[in-house]
Every structure is written in structure tokens, then in C-alpha cells.
Amino acid sequence: MRIILIRHGQTASNIGRYLDTAEPGAPLTVLGQEQAQALPAALEDERIDAIYASTLMRTQQTAQPLAQARGLEIQVRVGLREISAGDLEMANDEDSIQKYLSIAIGWADGDQNVEMPGTGRSGAAVLAEFDRVVDEVLAAGGQSAVIVSHGAMIRAWAGSRAVNLDPGFVAQAVVSNTGIVVLERFHGQWYVLHWQEQAMGGPDVEALGADGPAAESTSS
């Protein structure tokens, strides 16, 4: 089974570097829409049996062109939403951003008992919700599925579940708007096959430096 994790397209909150994690969230910018429109061509050689997105507007808007091109329904699941920023919601100062990222990336490296301030939820609890959606994808029996989610969540989940990533990798390996992480399951374990930081549509739809805190490395 192959899972293609795609980060949503650009939003105004990305440009302003806001920790925008609450529902419904900001919609896609014009560039974000262009990034979403580029996905069908960028993924034309990939088999896709199902498409999932989070409950935040930006992931569903990102998934729409691909779903339309493949004739598939977007299956919306709350477990795919961004890691809640809690007390840091809508902050855009460097200290808040680094605190948020350090906790989320810490989950990727195994420190999953830590809670995000103001949420009352540990990394283990948050990642288990994503696991449940992945279990649903596996149970559906397809060969390949797209999951449109969020930068911090993709980094934390892939980093914590893939067995072929070194500790500390995710702290520096970012995921820009419509960047992808491709994982495949072998003998009950997940392996990262491809980690593309940049937009799938190429340089014409890239906005490096304007793709939000989740596309930044940690300072540690």
C-alpha cells in the first residue's frame, strides 16, 4: 500500500506566518489555487484509488482539482487536520513558531508524551487519530491513496511512523505548500520513498519563504 501525503496549497496565513490551525481555517490564495490546479498533471503517472482531506477548508480546496480529474470523492476526516496550536493559535512571532515546531517535531522523534500548550493533548493522542484514518485507508483495500493534510502533521506523522528516517531528519526536512511525502508499507512497517519539499507543480507555483511556519526548520 502506498500513501501520498500532500500539504495543502498556500493561504494568507502562510504568507503572514500565522499558526492558523483552527476550523475552518483560511482559504487558498490565488497562488494556492494555482498550486492545487497543478496537482493533476504533476501526479498523472501515479495510481490513485482514493483521496482524503482534513476538515479544514484549505485541504479540501487543494484536493478538489485532483478529485475532479480522477472522478473520485474527497473523503473528509477530522483526524487529518493540522496539529492544534492551542495557546499559540494565530501567533506569528518567532518564539511561538519555534515552540510549536519543537513540540511537533519532538513527537516525530519519539517524545510523544509532551502536550501542546492549551490543548490538553499529547503527541500520542494526536498521532493516533491520524493512525485511525490510515487504518481506514488500509482496510479499504486500494493500492494507493492521496491524503491532503498539513505541514506539521505530515512531518510529525511520517517522522514518527517511517522506520527508515534518522532521528533529527524531520527537523530540517520541511514540506512546502503542495510538497509531498510518499510512503509505502512493507511487512507491516512504513518506509518513506520520496520526500519532496517543494511544490509539486514546479518553480512556477513555488513560494518558498511564503509558505508558513510548518515549512520551516526548527532552530535546535
Summarize the structure in words.
- The protein is of the alpha/beta class.
- The protein has a single domain, classed as Rossmann fold (3-Layer(aba) Sandwich).
- 36% of the residues lie in helices and 15% in strands.
- The chain has seven helices and six strands, in the order βααβαβααβααββ.
- A six-stranded mixed beta sheet has the order 3-2-4-1-5-6, with helices on both faces.
- A hairpin with a 2-residue loop joins β5 and β6 (189-196).
- α2 (30-42) runs parallel beside α3 and α4 (94-108) packs parallel to α6.
- The chain is globular, with a radius of gyration of 16 Å.
- The model has no long low-confidence stretch (mean pLDDT 96).
Report the principal-axis shape: globular
Total of helices: 7
- What order do the SSEs take from the amino end to the carboxyl end, as H and E? EHHEHEHHEHHEE
Strand order of the largest sheet: 3-2-4-1-5-6
Question: Which strand-content bin applies to the residues?
Answer: 15-25%
At CATH level 3, the topology is: Rossmann fold
Helix content range of the residues, please?
25-40%
